[in-house]
Amino acid sequence: MALAAAAREIDRLDAEVLLAHLLGIDRMALLLNPDRSIDAQGYEMLVQRRVTGEPVAYIIGHREFWSLDLRVTPDVLIPRPDSETLIDVAIASCAVPPARILDLGTGSGALLLAALQHWPAASGVGVDISPRALAVARGNAGRLGLDGRSTFRIGDWGHDLSERFDLVLANPPYVETDAELARDVRDHEPARALFAGPDGLREYRRLVPQLPGLLGVGATAIVEIGSTQAAAVQAMVAAAGLQSSVHRDISGHDRCVAMCA
After folding, report:
1. Which residues of 102-122 are buried (b: 16+ CB within 10 A; e: fewer)?
2. Are both 118 and 208 inside the same structural domain?
3. d(Cα 127, Cα 119) in Å, to the nearest integer?
4. pLDDT band at residue 24 under the 50/70/90 scheme
5. Are residue 127 and residue 237 in the same domain, yes or no?
6. Most exposed: 2, 24, 92, 218, by fewest CB within 10 Å?
7. In a domain, 60, yes or no
8. Residue 10 domain-assigned?
């Protein structure tokens, strides 16, 4: 009955995820055995947080990305399935497994940790300008047993990095300042990780010129983009002396630009 009532206020999937979280079980276990005694007041508190727009991932404190269970807080963007496109493209682009991986704007550590999970001989560095985000990323690395192969440091994109890497990943802010966003994104996810000036391209103008100095011989860089930004980002890449290709996500939208020397 509680689930049915909650589903009238919020999306049914969200209602199921929140109830499973309250019960300390996964959603499938809940669906297989829905008749359970619950803390009705505790559940109502969770539902009301969702009603006010708080993202489910922040309420329950974690989100799956590339089959990894990642802790997330309001200090980091919530990892999205569309961003898994970068890992797909990296796997297809790297003829030789990368030994050293760089993740710029690492946030929760999602891209770096997914790459390290796929290439067990690799190690990598995650860079973020937010100390709070780095704390989340370090925690995720520790929980996944990847802390021995990953380091995290505060930084402004690739400034002060002298090492060259085999694979560079980045998901910079790319939302236009006045863009209309869903309430849960606009009101709860970190604005600094979302917005990038009137055209959404401010951070690409800073990041792309740094990439040639971060790429080793035969290396690849893959940068997430907004669905309408491919041509503008490719022009910056060409000006930096790199070749590029555009790749689409599972929905058919332009999702990332891959580049190499």
Report:
1. bbbbbbbbbbbbbbbbbbeeb
2. yes
3. 19
4. confident
5. yes
6. 24
7. no
8. yes
Helix axes 110-118, 131-143, angle to 10 degrees: 30
Strands 243-248 and 254-260: antiparallel
Residues 25 and 149 in one domain: no
228 and 123 in a common domain: yes
Q: 117 with 179, same domain? A: yes
- Taking only the tens place, the pLDDT of each residue in 82-98 is 999 999 999 999 989 99
- Taken in order 104, 107, 109, 110, the sign of the CA dihedral is negative
Average pLDDT for residues 102-119, to the nearest whole number? 98
Can you give the length of the chain in residues?
A: 261
Mean pLDDT, the chain, whole residue set = 92
Q: Total domain count for the chain?
A: 2
- Please state the pTM of the whole predicted model: 0.90
Residue pair 70/61 in contact by the 8 Å Cβ criterion:
no
- Where in the sequence is the domain holding 173, given as residue range(s)? 66-260
Chain centroid to Cα 24, Å, comes to 25
Are 203 and 240 part of one and the same domain? yes
Give the integer Cα–Cα distance in Å for 77 and 107: 7
Per-residue pLDDT band for 100 (boundaries 50, 70, 90) equals very high
Dist CA 177 CA 17 (whole Å): 32
More confident residue, 4 or 136: 136
Q: Residues 47, 105: one domain?
A: no
CA distances from 134 to 8, 76, 109, 157, 203 (A): 38, 9, 8, 13, 19
Q: What is the pLDDT of residue 88?
A: 97
